[in-house]
Write a structure and sequence with these properties.
The protein is mainly β. Helix content is 13%, strand content 49%. It is built from two helices and 19 strands. The strands form five sheets. The chain has a four-stranded antiparallel sheet, with no helix packed on it. It has a four-stranded antiparallel sheet with strand order 5-6-7-8, with no helix packed on it. Strands 9-10-11-12 form a four-stranded antiparallel sheet, with no helix packed on it. The protein is globular, with a radius of gyration of 24 Å.
């Protein structure tokens, strides 16, 4: 019995030492809880798009699912300011928000079956980008000019639009099957577009980029039905990172890419032109 007690004492002492070591010697391993707070912005809101301004105040574009309105909410430091931007007779909930370098809001939205681009603040103006377009993703280039990726339900394809300082130019990125209904746009450090998107025909996640002459496309994941609800970001070296939904397994997935040699050569050429 005495030996058993001594053995249990040693085990207990070892556990205490391990516990103490984890806190005193390895403080980086200690889990710290994040303090969260929640609040109601609007009683009726769907498909929000969130960005933070230069003062870290939140701005949100969203669809009011009761009035069918496109709305914009901004935090003024005390309360939420809500604006109605567009009242639609057709339900199109998808919005995408960006802020320019002066914190002015820009929004892409499907209004009455037209792809629209809104800008303003106190007052709002808009332009019709294309006669058809759903699920837009908006990004602003280094000159604050808008770029939008979207799904065109007339061709069941992925399209891309950009403002050339005079008119909107639109291009077909990929129309092989039904592609692009879920899409996400990012601009690299040279303002070249990179898009992750869903191939509904084959159930694949795809990636497209502009090489300066044509659109290049690539299948990223084809295991099961994957690629819905995709979101893309670029690291400081322009390498693409993509999150997306795996329908087959009900999983959230992440893909990390490295630019090809061809893309690196294109970047070098771009740098030489700008030098």
């Amino acid at each position: 019995m005495e030996k058993i007690i001594q053995k249990m004492s040693l085990i207990l002492l070892g556990s205490v030492l391990v516990f103490a070591f984890s806190f005193l010697i390895l403080p980086g391993k200690k889990v710290k809880a994040v303090a969260w707070s929640t609040e109601i912005v609007s009683n009726n809101g769907n498909e929000p798009s969130l960005v933070l301004d230069s003062a870290n105040n939140p701005r949100i574009s969203y669809y009011d699912n009761v009035s069918n309105d496109l709305k914009y909410a901004s935090w003024d430091g005390v309360t939420w300011q809500i604006q109605t931007i567009f009242s639609s007779v057709i339900i199109n909930p998808y919005t995408s928000l960006a802020l320019d370098s002066s914190n002015n809001p820009r929004i892409s939205y499907i209004g009455d079956d037209n792809l629209r681009y809104y800008w303003g603040g106190a007052t709002w103006q808009f332009q019709i980008v294309d006669s058809l377009g759903y699920m837009p993703s908006l990004a602003l280039d280094s000159s604050n000019s808008p770029r939008i990726s979207y799904w065109d339900d007339a061709i069941y394809g992925l399209k891309y639009a950009y403002w050339d300082d005079t008119v909107w130019q639109t291009e077909t990125v990929d129309s092989e099957g039904s592609v692009g209904i879920y899409n996400s746009l990012a601009l690299d450090s040279y303002n070249k577009p990179r898009i992750s998107y869903y191939d509904a025909t084959n159930g694949n996640l795809k990636y497209a980029y502009w090489d300066g002459a044509i659109w290049q496309t690539q299948v990223i994941d084809s295991t099961g039905i994957v690629g819905r609800n995709t979101s893309i970001a670029l690291d400081s070296s322009n390498n693409p990172k993509i999150s997306y939904y795996d329908v087959t397994n009900g999983s959230l997935k992440y893909a990390s890419g490295v630019l090809s040699q061809k893309e690196r050569e294109e970047e070098a050429q771009q740098e030489a032109q700008e030098a």
